[in-house]
Amino acid sequence: MTILMLIFPIILFVVGVWGIIDIIIKKKRCTEYVDAVVVDIEKKRNTKRRRHISYSYFPVFEYRFEGKDYMKRSSLYSPYLSFSIGERVGLYIDPDKPENFYCPQETIHKVIIYLICIAVGALIKFLFC
Questions:
Q1: Which residue has the higher pLDDT, 1 or 4?
Q2: N or C: which end of the chain has fewer CB within 10 A?
Q3: Structural domain span for residue 46
């Protein structure tokens, strides 16, 4: 059995667990509700091979907290989660670091992704190690 088959499931499992912990920490820190507006959709080019090009789209949120305006890009893209420019969205921000936020609409998608990582990592480890 190759070293990759031993390490890969552990990496998947750790990424999943760390992602869930990160969500929990963000939910504890980000307690202030703000109304935000999607002001842009950033397009990022993904190239895996020379001939295969795809794009990811990330919403950019603008919000105001304590008289200061913030513009932050989301870190999540999901084909099942779409935002439109001009759409109003509720965010929760960290009052100590207002540039840190979480979007409840995105949170369930992140949880699903991390749970899949945990499950696949555990399954590979169980079946092949």
A1: 4
A2: N
A3: 3-128
Tally of domains within the chain: 1
Identify which has the larger pLDDT, 117 or 79.
Answer: 117
In whole angstroms, how far apart are CA 19 and each of 12, 41, 74? Answer: 11, 24, 15
Which run of H or of E encompasses 55? strand 53-65
Give the integer Cα–Cα distance in Å for 90 and 102: 9
Residues contacting residue 10 through CB under 8 Å, at least 6 positions apart: 121, 125
Sign of the four-CA dihedral 13, 19, 22, 28: negative
pLDDT single digits (tens) 43-74: 877 776 667 777 778 889 999 999 999 999 98
The residue among 55, 35, 18 whose CA lies nearest residue 104 is: 35
Point out which residues pair with 64 in neighbouring strands: 69
| 82 to 56, 72, 101: CA distances (angstroms) | 11, 16, 18
Q: Among 121, 106, 118, 124, which Cα is nearest to 20's?
A: 118
